[in-house]
Amino acid sequence: GQQVMQIPQYQHVQEGEDFTTYCNSSTTLSNIQWYKQRPGGHPVFLIQLVKSGEVKKQKRLTFQFGEAKKNSSLHITATQTTDVGTYFCAGGTSYGKLTFGQGTILTVHP
Amino acid sequence: DAGVIQSPRHEVTEMGQEVTLRCKPISGHNSLFWYRQTMMRGLELLIYFNNNVPIDDSGMPEDRFSAKMPNASFSTLKIQPSEPRDSAVYFCASSSHAGGEQYFGPGTRLTVT
Q: What is the DSSP annotation of A9-26?
């Protein structure tokens, strides 16, 4: 079945440093979605990418979808303590099923 | 607007007991998903429904797990009999259309002793 691998598993940064997490799928994806989960909370949708090579920005967050639609990345510029949490990518099929990566746990030291 | 509602928020039960988790999706959403989250296995899709019909139940661990969606506003996930390895946080999520963004409920933290 479809597998989605995400690295790194953990990332510790000083406030103000940049952060990147990478996602790779074993199969070509219909779309990729990114979610954020705060400690003790539930996953919250951030963005969806659909087109090959697509790049989207949300303030300090930049999302990319690879040309082959099998990989993606999330980059945060100048991290803040409010960015703490686990970031998940999720590979989507056309009929709605999402396969989540293992997530990257981000800690930000003030 | 209320989000996805799950109950109970916490459940502690003894091995062998039946457990029923409940979910009310966002009104108007026609896709509903049940996930399980553990440290070891991450976030796993158990089953999902489209227009109240189960589409993919390949993630259901075994026959002890069953899920129903009798109408568009209610779904249950039942574990019978429960085992300690079922301890996890169970999330329900809904989406307005297949392939769209998913809205997660607050989760049910299940502990089986």
A: SEEEEETT--EEEEEEES
Instruction: Tell whether B107 is within 8 A of chain A (Cβ).
Output: yes
pLDDT for B61: 86
The stretches of chain B forming alpha helices (DSSP H) are none
In the block, tokens 């996890």 appear at: B88
Closest CA to A80 of A45, A108, A41: A108
Low-confidence ranges of chain A (pLDDT < 70): none
What pLDDT digit, counting tens, does each position of A4-26 carry? 999 999 999 999 999 999 999 99
Helix (H, G, I), strand (E, B) or coil at B11: strand
Our CA dihedral for B59, A104, B103, A49, rounded to 10 degrees, sits at: -100
Please name every residue paired with B47 in a beta bridge, in sequence order, or none if there are none. B34
**What count of other Cβ atoms lies within 10 Å of the Cβ of residue B2?**
7
Q: Give the model's pLDDT for residue B1.
A: 63
Interface test with B, best of A98, A100, A104 (most B CBs within 10 A): A98
pLDDT < 70 regions, chain B: 1
CB contacts of B36 in chain A (<8 Å) are: none
